[in-house]
Design goal:
With about 625 residues, the chain is of the alpha+beta class.
């Protein structure tokens, strides 16, 4: 049944004067924008007033609105939470979005266990364990955990203690003196707890005690001529000092806070966050924001705060921003609810706080400027390189390129590969592998004919199926034909491709990637002419990357087939022997030779092998 036409003006009259969330959809029913409103009636109607002038981006969105819907909430705070959830779930193209979706590592101390462990964790749960972090470097967290375990010889196993004490022999860590062996009962619960308390002191930044202790042990071992032990303490001491040096930047208030700064231009925005935990700067991270065109900085900041702190498990006591954001009181209340204790959002004006904010802002500007340079270089390597190839071949509108290669060893397991590049970048979701069906020997031309025929026939069949069923062509994996086919070779390979295209009545330009005697690309074969190409140009480098990628993908597939073929056992050729019986035989006899030498009675010692099957096996090897 056809859907009733959505009458915008009529629906605007029905909007309630209540808080809630509104959702704008286009003609394909795709969500374009999600917004929050204190009063849905006033906010949604404002989009459809002709004299609003909210900028080209919003005007463009309004032109595309086919219908809208709304969800009423009891409060503005509930609307804020719902808006955030819907944005994260649907990624609307007109909402400013946090590009990075990272989870930060924590150090987890399982103080709720009788014999606690120190673990790496990506999530902070309400499980009575003690968490330190978040940290910005997973490698640094792993190094710190390894150091603490070495210092205090803590267990790293998953044994259930004290229930499993004495059940099994101690592991290698105990014999290497990296664990005090609580699983053996050699260390008391109280002694082990003291080690954990010292580890907690270390994690809280009390490095002085352990530095003094290690220094004393190193000197004592040296005096007693235990030089190997002294070197061990020296290495531990250096590791502790390295961790301590990373914590030089401190704040006398000893509080948890995040310092957020923003750098933005007309297209891009970078948010820099300094993470301060227990008064120490433990790290920093930058985040890219998309869809920022023409948006005020305060709006970009507000969107970042809502999206980032909805996803991170740790909420600091204070959030420092460079300027006030919309709904600051509501966001502060929401963060307080999430943390379970009071959270403050401040805009520093004077003193040390302002200096920290300036430092964060400088870092954000630096990242933005560096990123622009990186993007400029990346554009030269990709879009710029495609333009060079266009000019070289005299083409226009070159976007999608497909390259093909064949791999075999003396005709064994012939395979073909198809790699796809769009705008100069690999599109790995469109890569395809082909197991050659019609060619048994080493005939690359015949193999390529099959690969191209199957690829293009798939595309034609899918297009027809999608047209009949009236489905968007994006749902077909082969329907999108290339603007240029690249063949790994010269005239011969190009002619094979042209013959397939002619047989199917399709026109697609075909270009050969010609190699020299050293198997390096020397030029392009196009329209019966070999075109030289500058080896230093970005176009040449892109062609080489595409050629190498097609070759790699084919070799990788061929290698996997060879590995599977090598796994095949002679037992697979015996009637009545499937995977279960083969496994049972190999487990009992250890080798094919032992099975070959066994008589029928010996074979029947395997529970899964009845007498009739044992006779078949014996006859197979001795018939």
């Amino acid at each position: 049944m056809a859907q009733e036409k959505f009458d915008v003006q009529e629906e605007l009259k029905k909007l309630p004067n209540q808080p809630g969330v509104y959702i704008m959809r286009d003609s394909n029913d795709t969500i374009m924008y999600v917004g929050k409103a204190v009063n849905l009636h006033n906010r949604v109607r404002s989009y459809f007033r002709k004299i609003v002038g909210r900028g080209p981006q919003i005007d463009m969105m309004v032109k595309q609105i086919a219908r809208f819907e709304y969800i009423v909430t009891d409060s503005e705070l509930e609307a804020l939470v719902l808006e955030n959830n819907l944005i994260k779930e649907n990624s609307p193209r007109y909402n400013t979005m946090l590009k990075d979706d990272k989870t930060y590592p924590y150090i987890k101390v399982t103080v709720n266990e009788d014999y606690p462990r120190i673990l790496f964790s990506r999530l902070m749960k309400k499980d009575k364990a003690k968490y330190f972090g978040p940290f910005t470097s997973a490698a640094a967290v792993k190094d710190t955990i390894e150091l603490i375990n070495k210092l205090y010889q803590l267990r790293t196993c998953n044994r259930s203690l004290p229930k499993d004490i004495g059940v099994e022999r101690p592991c290698l860590n105990y014999h290497m003196k990296r664990c005090c062996g609580p699983c053996t009962g050699y260390v008391s619960k109280e002694d082990y707890r003291q080690r954990i308390d010292k580890a907690l002191d270390f994690l809280n930044g009390n490095y002085g005690v352990i530095i003094d202790d290690l220094t004393q042990k190193m000197e004592q071992a040296s005096e007693e001529m235990e030089f190997e032990q002294a070197a061990h303490y020296r290495d531990l001491l250096n590791s502790v000092k390295m961790v301590a040096q990373k914590q030089k930047m401190t704040d006398s208030a000893m509080e948890d806070k995040d310092i957020v700064a923003l750098a933005a231009d007309d297209k891009d925005a970078v948010v820099q966050v300094f993470f301060v935990r227990d008064g120490r700067l433990i790290g920093r991270e930058h985040f890219y924001m998309t869809h920022v065109s023409e948006n005020p900085k305060a709006e970009i900041l507000g969107n970042f705060v809502k999206q980032f702190y909805a996803g991170t498990p740790f909420i600091p006591r204070e959030l420092m921003l460079p300027e006030e954001i919309e709904d600051m009181d509501i966001i502060e209340k929401w963060l307080t609810q999430r943390k379970g204790s009071r959270v403050y959002i401040s805009v520093p004006k004077l003193g040390q706080k302002e200096k920290l904010m300036e430092l964060a802002a400088q870092n954000a500007e630096l990242v933005l400027s560096k990123d622009k340079e990186r993007l400029k270089r990346e554009e030269g390597r990709t879009i710029g390189a495609v333009k060079e190839i266009e000019n070289l071949l005299g083409m226009k509108g070159l976007n999608r390129m497909e390259a093909y290669d064949i791999s075999n060893i003396s005709g064994f397991a012939n395979v073909g590969s198809m790699v796809v590049y769009e705008k100069g970048k690999p599109k790995k979701s469109d890569y395809r592998k082909f197991r050659i069906k019609s060619v048994s020997g080493p005939d690359d031309y015949a193999c390529m004919h099959e690969v191209l025929t199957r690829r293009l026939m798939h595309g034609l069949e899918e297009k027809h199926e999608l047209e009949v069923r009236e489905i968007d062509s994006r749902f077909g994996s082969f329907t999108k034909f290339p603007d240029l086919i690249l063949m790994d070779g010269g005239r011969g390979q190009v002619n094979i491709a042209l013959r397939v295209l002619d047989e199917l009545g399709i026109y697609i330009p075909v270009c050969g990637m010609v190699k020299d005697d050293n198997h390096r690309t020397r030029g392009l074969y196009f329209n019966n002419i070999e075109i030289p190409i500058d080896r230093e140009s970005e176009g040449f480098k892109l062609i080489t990357r595409i050629q190498d990628e097609a070759h790699r993908f084919a070799i990788e597939y061929h290698r996997s087939l060879r590995s599977k073929a090598q796994v095949k056992s002679s037992l697979d050729d015996i009637p009545g022997i499937g995977p279960a019986r083969r496994k049972a035989l190999m487990k009992h006899f250890k080798s094919i030779e032992d099975i070959r030498n066994a008589d029928v009675e010996t074979l029947m010692q395997v529970p899964e092998i009845p007498e009739n099957v044992a006779k078949v096996i014996y006859d197979f090897f001795h018939g």
